[in-house]
Amino acid sequence: MKMPVLLLFTDDEWFAQLYKPFHTSSAGYFYGVLAGMVYHRVKPSGDEFINRKMFKAVKIIALLVVIICYVPSYLIYDIDWKEYFWMPFYGSIAKNCWGFLCAVTFIDLAFNKKNRLRSLLESRSILPLGKLTYSVYHSHYLILMAISSAIRAPLANDVFTPISFTVLALILSYGLGLIVFLLVEQPAANLLTGKTNYIEFIAEQLMQAARRCFKKINKKCF
């Protein structure tokens, strides 16, 4: 009888070793930097760059690698994959291919004004979600941990379960992200970018108070 697995694999030993540590995902954080470097390098000839056969081939290969890596990934939990020598190679590719695909996609969106995905992302209905992205990024992990903690029984390893909980996590993450945006991010942005620079004002007041304090100390001591 096939044993069910817990959602998010939070109790899985190998998931904890391969996915949760920062160093195992560090490469993915740099793909955005690489995309920015490529963007500024080819910006004068961006239209020509994205129409090159090489770039089109890279896009197709990146998409195919992601599909090949992630579609059958659930099978890993149906076999004793620790015994297979190719699993480290699979893990390395799977950890990097998604970030690489995102970097290639961002470059394509930056230069291809006719891209349908770009038109969708620029629509007025999507732009508010984009503004919440940073707050959602910081709050989604709390939502994932809360959902995992709320699970008291094993869940079946099927297709519907992760999809349904992913939708739930997205809705809750954006809800919490909206709260963080309204209470923290937006007020902080207004404070830092307003006509009155409150940070400099507060720093100046503190410096003046410190000078007055030192003057009083000097008068008393000397």
Features of the shown structure:
222 residues, mainly alpha, 73% helix, extended, disordered N terminus, transmembrane, AAEL015092-PA, acyltransferase activity, transferring groups other than amino-acyl groups, membrane
Explain what you see.
Helix 4 crosses helix 5 and helix 8 crosses helix 9. The radius of gyration is 25 Å and the shape is extended. The chain is built from 10 helices and no strands. The N terminus is likely disordered. Helices cover 73% and strands 0% of the residues.
Instruction: Report, as a whole number of angstroms, the end-to-end distance.
Output: 87 Å
Total separate domains = 2
Helix residue percentage: over 70%
Low-confidence stretches: 1-9
Radius of gyration: 25 Å
Tell me the number of helical segments per DSSP (H or I, 4 or more residues long): 10
Biggest pleated sheet: none
Number of strands: 0
SSE order? HHHHHHHHHH
The averaged pLDDT comes out at: 78
Beta-strand percentage?
under 5%
Keywords: Membrane, Transmembrane, Transmembrane helix
Organism: Aedes aegypti (Yellowfever mosquito)
Domain Acyltransferase: 7-180
Transmembrane segments: 20-39, 60-77, 89-111, 132-151, 163-184
